[in-house]
Amino acid sequence: YTFSTPGTYYYRLCADLNSSWVGSVTESNEGNNCGAWSSITVAAVVPPTPTCSLSANPPGVPSTLTWSSTNATTCTGGGFSTGGATAGTAPVGTAGSYTLSCSGAGGSCPVQSVTVGAAACSNPTPTISATPARIHAGDPVTISYSATGVNSCTIVGPGVSKSATVASCSVSPSTALVPAGTIQTQATYTITCDGVSKQTIVNVIPQFQEF
């Protein structure tokens, strides 16, 4: 039997046939031909999470951006146009930072970033923290971040995937809200700026049951 929708279903086995598998057996008790009811749970198929990548070749201008993805239905470029395609190439002639984000039925991939041309900033120094850093499962959390000496930064973790706004080689102190219900187990949030990464961890307070 093929189940068309998820849910809990019940079944039992019954037997009341003769040796020719036709008709029924004449008997004094017709109420004892079936076994007990059992249940079976059919779970919904969880779509896979998209992945994506972005690269530039050569690293100087002019350059060609190449992007690809898996399990995505559309991709969007920052600083260039993908036309919604999930893979492809695009020429660029201006130095700067370019980003890529892709999404599908299973959500979105972490934002990808690449810098084309000579780096205008050096000595990347990112910072990131979580408030509170210790929560009950499902509590909301605020992720705070900033950076200096950077060309581009991304912040990723459960419930967060974004590119930071960079101005004059800096990311001003900013925040990202992790919605309630997102964090159920220990979660890690990472800021990556020009290849330099920093992390902060949110721990979940264990629950105890007296017995």
Structural features:
5-stranded mixed β-sheet; mainly beta; 211 residues; elongated; 4-stranded antiparallel β-sheet; 0% helix; single chain
In short:
This protein has no helices and 17 strands. It has strands at 7-11, 38-42, 51-57, 63-70, 74-78, 88-92, 96-104, 107-108, 112-116, 125-131, 134-135, 141-148, 153-157, 160-163, 170-178, 187-193, 196-204.
Sheet having the most strands: 5 strands, mixed
Largest sheet: spatial strand order: 11-17-16-13-14
The arrangement of helices and strands along the chain is: EEEEEEEEEEEEEEEEE
Report the C-alpha radius of gyration, rounded: 27 Å
- Mean pLDDT, all residues: 89
Total strands: 17
The percent range for helix content is under 10%
Shape: elongated
Q: Which regions have little confidence, pLDDT < 50, spanning 5+ residues? A: none
Strand content: over 45%
User: Helix count, per DSSP?
Assistant: 0
Structural class: mainly beta
CA(first)-CA(last) distance: 42 Å
Account of the protein in words:
The protein has 211 residues and is mostly beta strands. Helices cover 0% and strands 48% of the residues. It has no helices and 17 strands. The strands form 5 sheets. Strands 11-17-16-13-14 form a 5-stranded mixed beta sheet, with no helix packed on it. It is elongated, with a radius of gyration of 27 Å. It starts with 6 loop residues before the first strand and ends in a 7-residue tail after the last strand.
